[in-house]
Amino acid sequence: MSDEFDNTRVDRFEKKRKNTLWISWLFVAGGILVVVLIALFIFGGNDDDNQATDVDKEDNSEDQQVESESDKESVSSEDETLEEKETEDVKVDSEEETSSNQNNESANEEETEESEQFETETVSSDDENVIEAYTGNWSPIGTEQEEPHVTKIKKETQEWEEILKAFRHATGLVEGDMITWWVDGVGPQSVIGTVTNKAQEENYRVYLSWVTNQGWQPTKVEILKENDKK
After folding, report:
1. How far apart, in whole angstroms, are the C-alpha atoms of residue 11 and residue 17?
2. How far apart are CA 197 and CA 98, in angstroms?
3. What's the confidence (pLDDT) of residue 118?
């Protein structure tokens, strides 16, 4: 009776010990599984985040590179446009300056040619300030004024411009290199004036007469020692 009781108790103990052992193994296995899952979640999520971050960085880098190239192309295009505009402006200014110089040279050449197409003859003078006096076969310079002509000496008029042209015609001075010091009427159709070059090294007294429908004609030139109208 006692042996049967002892055997039963031993069996129950062994069974209980086995159940406890299985439960322990299950807890251990479950704990390992939980640790593995947590590790996968943590490290796997970080890898995905890192991959996503790397992809974003690559996209941003490509976008910045495209924007940088676009900005460079835009700046380069603006620079080329400015250079082209500056080149055009310089070209236009150069053409205008060349055209102006050519016009001035042409006008000066015409006046020089006109002044050379006459013969002069020395005449006497009682004026002590006169170095030399001469007449010439100057032709009238032409006119845009209508007849009957009335002498009206006033600056910035057609009359004034024609008188100055006649002075240049007789003296050989050119436009832009002549200073008019004095102009006065001598009778109804005659004028006398004193002019010099800009350097004031050449001093002239010039006499003009009006020719009907042909304009002012130089009749005499006096080369002066000094400008007596200064």
Report:
1. 10
2. 25
3. 74
